[in-house]
Amino acid sequence: MATSKVEGSSSLRHAFGGVLSVFILLLIGVVAFSIRLFSVIKYESVIHEFDPYFNYRVTQFLSKNGIYDFWNWFDDRTWYPLGRVIGGTVYPGLTLTAGTMWKLANSLNIPLSVETVCVFTAPIFSAFAAWATYLLTKEVKGPGAGITAAAILAMVPSYISRSVAGSYDNEAVAIFALIFTFYLYIKTLNTGSLFYATLNSLAYFYMVCSWGGYTFIINLIPMHVLLCIVTGRYSSRLYIAYAPLVVLGTLLAALVPVVGFNAVMTSEHFGSFLVFIIIHVVALVYYIKGILTPRLFKVATTLVLTVGIAVCAVVVAILVALVASSPTKGWSGRSLSLLDPTYASKYIPIIASVSEHQPPTWPSYFMDINVLAFLVPAGIVACFLPLSDASSFAVLYLVTSVYFSGVMVRLMLVLAPAACIMSGIALSEAFGVLTRSMKFHITKYFECSHTEAPAKLGESTSTESSAPLENMTKSDTTEKPEVARKEKVARRKQKKEKELTENAHVKPVSAKKEKRPLVLPLEASIVSVFLLIVLGGLYVLHCVWAAAEAYSAPSIVLTSHSHDGLHVFDDFREAYAWLRHNTEVDDKVASWWDYGYQTTAMANRTVIVDNNTWNNTHIATVGTAMSSPEKAAWEIFNSLDVKYVLVVFGGLVGYPSDDINKFLWMVRIGGGVFPHIKEADYLKDGQYRVDAQATHTMLNCLMYKLSYYRFVETDGKGFDRVRRYEIGKKHFKLTHFEEVFTTHHWMVRIYKLKPQKNRIRGKSRKSKLGSKSTSSKSGGMTHKNPWN
Amino acid sequence: MTTKATRPNKKPIYFPVPPVSFVSSLFPSAINKIKRQNEIESDLISVQLLHQNKIREQIRCAIEMAKSTNDAQLLIQSLRKAYAATPTNLKIIDLYVVYAVATALIQVGYMAIVGSFPFNSFLSGVLSCVGTAVLAVCLRIQVNKDNKEFKDLPPERAFADFILCNLVLHLVIMNFLG
């Protein structure tokens, strides 16, 4: 009776714990969703930045025309006159997901517009990602660590930065797919079930559809398999987890048009094939070892080694010859720039020029993962006690993602889940020890009136074992209790549940550890838990601040606070709307490639180059045109059928990322293809300046003229608020372009190409026909015709 | 069986050298003839020694090779015996694996003759064979009664997983076949 009662109460506690975990996870999902809504509240429900506009346009097309047209879509409104095969060059995961959600909502008669669905896709999938982190960490360490990790991931600023409401980019769904794929891999590894292996391959397929970063998965998992084999942890579950994934995964990856045959021909995938062969060899070796006697096995190994090494050498020689014959050794440019960080700046200036591709600074680590930066090493230690396949995978994932995040700031995003998992593990382990100590001391205090001697014994053992644990727990902090607490206190204010959670988690642990308490002194535990609460509070505070202030700017609408209130700069949309309403549908607009996606999406006009940057020569053509004098630029633009030129200028209001600041990149990229553009011509004494000391080439190039045309009329002196000096050439006229629109704050300026003159005025025509000797005479009498 | 070193019957003849040289200066021809005889004898002895060493080594090699071929034969025999002891259902699965791999090799050979266009058909053909072989190996692992890790997995469940995974594989293959 008593045992069944105990069992009943413990099963009731387990059931209650289960319900509570579900409730906590629901709350974590709500937090993850709502912390990303700051930009919607502060600005409006609008798509941010540049890349999301392309995805939005593609989703619009998909929702209007259906999937077959989308799959076969050839877009003739970008990269004029080349066009772009959208069906074959876009990662379809994000757009298909949003399109499906839109279709589902509309079929249930919930009238959401495509824009709304696109804006809110990222927060929804970040809630899913938090739940996937719970599942993954539960497989690695246990449900307590899972909930902690999920709560941390819901708020980590690095992930928020790429998944705010409105940031409709590939990473919004890709990070969820990444974590979910890893979860299924670890689940297969732990259970050895082929069902989960199938699901793993399907999740990998979703990841390949979503993001180019899928190569991280297909290289990390083979690395982990190799690690397991080398450290002697080979088991048949490892084979079941890996071999079907390679075959099915390669096939599924080849299904996606963007990847196609790259899945079997590029070096990014060779690692997986190599480990596939290795695991088969190892499996065979273990099988033969199992059925032979040891002596015969030794003989077999010598026989096989002599033959095998010869064959291997031949195969490796062939492979090396094949790979070395291609100049990039089979790797794509982006992967090479990850492996060799200096590659891009030497060979592909476009990749080097993107600000997201620069290495991060040290403070950005603290900004993006905050408290986790010093919880991660504690998590690594906790993973080694005890080491299992899953925890070795977590450590490997963390180490590789730390390396890649050091190469490119955009990849801090891949580090975020790893850091959250590690911190969750560290915190839950530390929390376990601390609450166990507290409970032990409290129960001992209540029982000490009955038994004196065993209590003393317990104390001596606790003081012995507290010393080695000091290091681990002093540096650890727990977050799960007070994050969960904070949420509950903020929303429900039920203290009783706190104690019950503690009991639910501590009870089975303390029952096991009756022999060796491994507890800390009571005062230290209480103080530590209090410090954890404070630390967790600081983390939450930082995350909310980062989400609200740093990462919620939509980049298309700018605000600034000044003494006379809030100024809103909506110039971009003003310019695109003007283009949409005042130009013909077939007019071509030339601008720098940053604005291509926005122009096609919002202004609905054909552009010459856009953010896809797949054709370096075309971009170099535009760059050359921007760097040339007016006549040459007109020639280039006329040959591309361009009607309008768009430049972004921040000198009047102090907007720092305008075209004049980007101009040197235009020169470099243009100079890379057209050698008559030399960067040194635009620099005075190695310095880039546009004031009176600027070079002649700089003061006469198209970019300067289009940016500063009539700028002197604003304040009489032509003071540039970004560069902080007066401009060099103030009064000049444009001969080949005419200004058609300048926005309210002069941030976007649109010019039209003047049509070529129909007839040339009399005298200069005669002088053209005549000899050069008469030119000097006639030069003084007539205007110099700029069209000659 | 080892050969013992046999001593030459003849004992080497040692002449005291200085008197020979001294005497040889006095009586050159006779002394030289004796010297030459001694040299020939020592040469003969060294040649005999060498020959014996070579024979010794050859015999040693032959024994080792005999041992290794003996071992190899022993190895193959024991492998065959151990494999014959596996249950029939596992042998059926192994046969299926061999058949799938053989089909894949035939396809690769055909591609080598005919050329690889269209490449997607070749890929899907080879990968379907390799894939079903891998899945069959996984099934064998899960059904094998000697495997401690899977002792509480009913073989019907293992087979159902195998079928499901094959379904997904072949759906993808059908799509990719072109």
TrEMBL record, chain A:
Catalytic activity: a di-trans,poly-cis-dolichyl diphosphooligosaccharide + L-asparaginyl-[protein] = N(4)-(oligosaccharide-(1->4)-N-acetyl-beta-D-glucosaminyl-(1->4)-N-acetyl-beta-D-glucosaminyl)-L-asparaginyl-[protein] + a di-trans,poly-cis-dolichyl diphosphate + H(+)
Domain STT3/PglB/AglB core, first and last residues per copy: 586-645
Region span, Disordered: 456-500, 758-788
Biased composition (Basic residues): 758-769
Alphabetical list of Pfam families matching this protein: STT3, STT3-PglB_core
Low complexity composition-biased segments: 770-780
Keyword Transmembrane helix in annotation: yes
InterPro entries for this protein: Oligo_trans_STT3, STT3-PglB_core, STT3_N
Topology within the bilayer: Multi-pass membrane protein
Membrane-spanning parts: 15-38, 112-136, 142-160, 172-197, 203-227, 239-264, 270-288, 300-324, 365-385, 392-409, 415-434, 518-541
Location of the Oligosaccharyl transferase STT3 N-terminal domain: 19-422
Enzyme class at the top of the EC tree: transferase
Residue ranges with Basic and acidic residues bias: 476-487
Keywords: Endoplasmic reticulum, Glycoprotein, Glycosyltransferase, Magnesium, Manganese, Membrane, Metal-binding, Transferase, Transmembrane, Transmembrane helix
EC number: 2.4.99.18
Subcellular location: Endoplasmic reticulum membrane
This protein's pathway: Protein modification; protein glycosylation
Single GO MF annotation: dolichyl-diphosphooligosaccharide-protein glycotransferase activity
Broad class of where this protein is predominantly found: endoplasmic reticulum
Function of the protein: Catalytic subunit of the oligosaccharyl transferase (OST) complex that catalyzes the initial transfer of a defined glycan (Glc(3)Man(9)GlcNAc(2) in eukaryotes) from the lipid carrier dolichol-pyrophosphate to an asparagine residue within an Asn-X-Ser/Thr consensus motif in nascent polypeptide chains, the first step in protein N-glycosylation. N-glycosylation occurs cotranslationally and the complex associates with the Sec61 complex at the channel-forming translocon complex that mediates protein translocation across the endoplasmic reticulum (ER).
Assembly description: Component of the oligosaccharyltransferase (OST) complex.
The protein's name in its UniProt record: dolichyl-diphosphooligosaccharide--protein glycotransferase
TrEMBL record, chain B:
Family: Belongs to the DAD/OST2 family.
GO biological process per UniProt: protein N-linked glycosylation
Subcellular location: Endoplasmic reticulum membrane
Main subcellular location: endoplasmic reticulum
Ribosomal protein as UniProt keyword: no
Keyword Transmembrane in record: yes
Cited function: Subunit of the oligosaccharyl transferase (OST) complex that catalyzes the initial transfer of a defined glycan (Glc(3)Man(9)GlcNAc(2) in eukaryotes) from the lipid carrier dolichol-pyrophosphate to an asparagine residue within an Asn-X-Ser/Thr consensus motif in nascent polypeptide chains, the first step in protein N-glycosylation. N-glycosylation occurs cotranslationally and the complex associates with the Sec61 complex at the channel-forming translocon complex that mediates protein translocation across the endoplasmic reticulum (ER). All subunits are required for a maximal enzyme activity.
Protein name: Dolichyl-diphosphooligosaccharide--protein glycosyltransferase subunit DAD1
GO cellular component labels: oligosaccharyltransferase complex
Swiss-Prot/TrEMBL keywords: Apoptosis, Endoplasmic reticulum, Membrane, Transmembrane, Transmembrane helix
UniProt topology in membrane: Multi-pass membrane protein
TM region positions: 95-113, 119-139
Quaternary structure (record): Component of the oligosaccharyltransferase (OST) complex.
Pfam families (UniProt xref): DAD
UniProt pathway annotation: Protein modification; protein glycosylation
